[in-house]
Amino acid sequence: MATIVFDLDGTLADTSQDLLAAANHCFGTIGAGAVLTLADAATALRGGRAMLRLGMERLGHARGEDEIDRLYPLLLEAYAGAISVHTRLFPGAMQAVEMLRSQGHTVAICTNKPEGLARQLLTDLGIMGDFPALVGADTLTVRKPDPEPLREAVRRAGGDPRIACLVGDSDTDRNTARAAGVPSVLVTFGPSGEDMAALAPEALIGHFDELPSAVAGFWRDADLPALDGARGRA
Ligand SMILES: O=C(O)COP(=O)(O)O
Ligand SMILES: [Mg+2]
């Protein structure tokens, strides 16, 4: 059986509103108003630095990167203080996890959120105990799209990194899976949904209830390179 690894932001949960609020708190400390709006959800799901960069651009800050470095810890602090106010799991996420586990698969999380914040969020959402392994941005010295955090998440869950897939919502997730030599599933229900097909993942899902059959296809279809590689070396 395989290890199904999930990205967190934009995949398991819509974290965009709480991320945007934390970024706007930072802009407030430099005298700006709410620089980002709900229309910036896609940027929010790319993480704190991406939000600060967009805000700095809008504010016309010349020394943007220095300011981003200075504001980033403030953003993390603000976010930690209100991490689960608006954040919700996407429909069917945990039912899909339950189904996959009942089929004998193992699950894990690989996120570019700092590990502590990811743990805090999963605990608030009441699902920390459902994931035997979690690798965050600072768990190792490298983060996605380096393949190592994905492989490490699989190993920590007790699985074989060659028999795994990554469920995500971004080019980063697609590239991470590709670098690890395993299939990816990209979700199309987020704010960047229409861009996902162009990334040519092995599967696209518009709802979590499509995930178990998408995953089953990976290890049923003998033509998949990742499968051949995994079997060839096993
Ligand atoms: O916080 C980020 O940079 C993105 O987090 P994710 O990897 O869970 O989508
Ligand atoms: Mg994501």
UniProtKB/TrEMBL annotation:
Gene3D superfamilies: HAD superfamily/HAD-like, Putative phosphatase, domain 2. SUPFAM superfamilies: HAD-like. It catalyses: 2-phosphoglycolate + H2O = glycolate + phosphate. Belongs to the HAD-like hydrolase superfamily. CbbY/CbbZ/Gph/YieH family. PANTHER family: PHOSPHOGLYCOLATE PHOSPHATASE. The lineage of its organism: Bacteria, Pseudomonadati, Pseudomonadota, Alphaproteobacteria, Rhodobacterales. Pathway: Organic acid metabolism; glycolate biosynthesis; glycolate from 2-phosphoglycolate: step 1/1. Pfam families: HAD_2. Transmembrane segments: none annotated. It is an enzyme of class 3 (hydrolase). GO terms for biological process: DNA repair. One of its GO terms (cellular component) is cytosol. Its EC number is 3.1.3.18. GO terms for molecular function: phosphoglycolate phosphatase activity. InterPro entries: HAD-like_hydrolase_sf (IPR050155), HAD-like_sf (IPR036412), HAD-SF_hydro_IA (IPR006439), HAD_2 (IPR041492), HAD_sf (IPR023214), PGP-like_dom2 (IPR023198). This is phosphoglycolate phosphatase.
